[in-house]
Amino acid sequence: MSVLVVGSVAFDAVKTPFGEREKVLGGAATYFSLAASFFTGVKVIAVVGNDFTDTERSVFLERGIDISEMQYVPDGKTFFWKGEYGYDLNTAHTLDTQLNVFGSFDPKLSDAARNTPYLFLGNILPGLQRTVREQMNNPKLVALDTMNYWINSQRDSLLETLKVIDMLLINDAEARELGGSSNLIKAAQNILQMGPKTLIVKRGEYGAAMFREDSYFATPAYPCEQVVDPTGAGDTFAGGFIGYLGATNNPDEAAIRRAIIYGSVMASFTVEDFSCDRLRRLKPEEINERFRHFKRITHFEEVEFAHSILA
């Protein structure tokens, strides 16, 4: 296994303008691992309750995802989230959150997990992310996700965690809040001073951007004709992104730029159906075709500027 993800496996209840589902598989580690599994081997460390059955396990196993270290609490319930989207699909309105067994999640890594070269720390308590990082044996790359709640309520702990990671993946609003500026460029510069060598900003339907000390890269989102449920799109992006880097095993800047495209491609599939349904039907040839299409629609030729062009 080249990628280890530590995060949430959950049940979601989701309502969008295009339909509603009462109880479907969700969670950051779920979306991440399914997307990453198209590129490389993935191990998931999470916690679930007695409502997590063979039906849910099969979703992971059919993609060859290692869930042997997923914690099972026989007298507990799995993390549950209920949300609703209006026609602005960039914003989820949380209606209910039940941490259940996730509230006491305390991951302990096996020797095999400790030696995994690529680690993705899903959106969990910053101190817990740091504890997992400390258990690892010289990983090649450590990436982390967080959220506004931790930025506000656990800022000091989060800043300590940012010192021991290589890459931060967060959305536009989180970047501005963490970086302390409404200007994304300035906010990114501030964040890079906190520890991460690379910042990836997920901008939903507007694409994604990469910030490093001496470089910048941005792309639009893949143009989707059908958007049904955006839940998990950001986690799917992260899975495609880290999965590609794990497959190439060479996280240089050129690979990071391609990984952003693959992350965007994977996210574009997730939003086409509820829960993980589209990812479960996805074929590798569809990924390749969408990647090639993405390249075509963003390509332009370089020309030498001349006054005659504007004449």
Structure notes:
The protein has 311 residues and is of the alpha/beta class. The protein is 37% helix and 23% strand. It is built from twelve helices and 14 strands. It has helices at residues 28-36, 54-61, 111-114, 126-135, 148-153, 155-162, 172-179, 184-192, 233-248, 253-270, 277-281, 284-298, and strands spanning 3-6, 10-16, 19-26, 42-45, 47-48, 71-72, 79-85, 92-98, 118-121, 141-145, 167-171, 198-202, 208-212, 215-219. The strands form three sheets. It has an eight-stranded mixed β-sheet with strand order 4-1-9-10-11-12-13-14, with helices on both faces. α9 (233-248) packs antiparallel against α10. The longest helix has 18 residues, at 253-270.
Summary keywords:
14 strands, 311 residues, single chain, globular, alpha/beta
> Based on helices, strands and strand pairing, what is the structural class?
alpha/beta
Quaternary state of the chains: single chain
Task: Report strand order across the widest sheet.
Answer: 4-1-9-10-11-12-13-14
Radius of gyration: 19 Å
**Terminal Cα span:** 58 Å
Q: Say how many strands there are.
A: 14
Q: Helix share of residues?
A: 25-40%
Encode the helix/strand succession as letters: EEEHEEHEEEHEHEHHEHHEEEHHHH
Low-confidence stretches: none
Alpha plus pi helix count:
12
Largest sheet: 8 strands, mixed
Average pLDDT rating = 94
